[in-house]
Amino acid sequence: MGRLTTHVLDTAKGQPGQGITIDVFRLSGDTREHLGSVITNSDGRCDAPILEGDALMVGEYELVFHAGDYLRAQGIEAHEPRFLDIIPLRFGVVDASQHYHVPLLLSPYSYSTYRGS
Fold this sequence. Notes:
CATH architecture: Sandwich
CATH topology: Immunoglobulin-like
Number of helices: 1
């Protein structure tokens, strides 16, 4: 059974990104369907897969991380507008029976991602 998971690591502090809201979308051409929202736990992960089973289909997806809210809550001073605020990550699912793990490594001025396991 396929599933989609994520986690957030605050690389500036070397700790999990707790309390980050993530919106989940399925993309189809010009259509962007909101599938739901999740919030990272104390380990920077979601308590359950974001999507799993029949909910995960072949196609394009977008995870939208509300990083600016997290950075503000951490007391990280920055000029407004922040360099990073909303971070959209778009990716494709070619085999819905697989596990797609899409983490976010975050600091106030950079981020990266990869397909994890």
